[in-house]
Amino acid sequence: MVRIETSMVINRPVEEVFAFLSNMENNMKWRTSQQEVKKLSEGPIGLGTTYRMVNHVLGRQLETEAEVIEFEPNRKYTSRDKSGTLPLKAQRIFEAVEGGTRVTFRLQADPGGVFKIAAPLFATLAKRGIESDAAKLKDLLEAGAL
Question: CATH number of the domain that 128 lies in?
Answer without folding.
Answer: 3.30.530.20
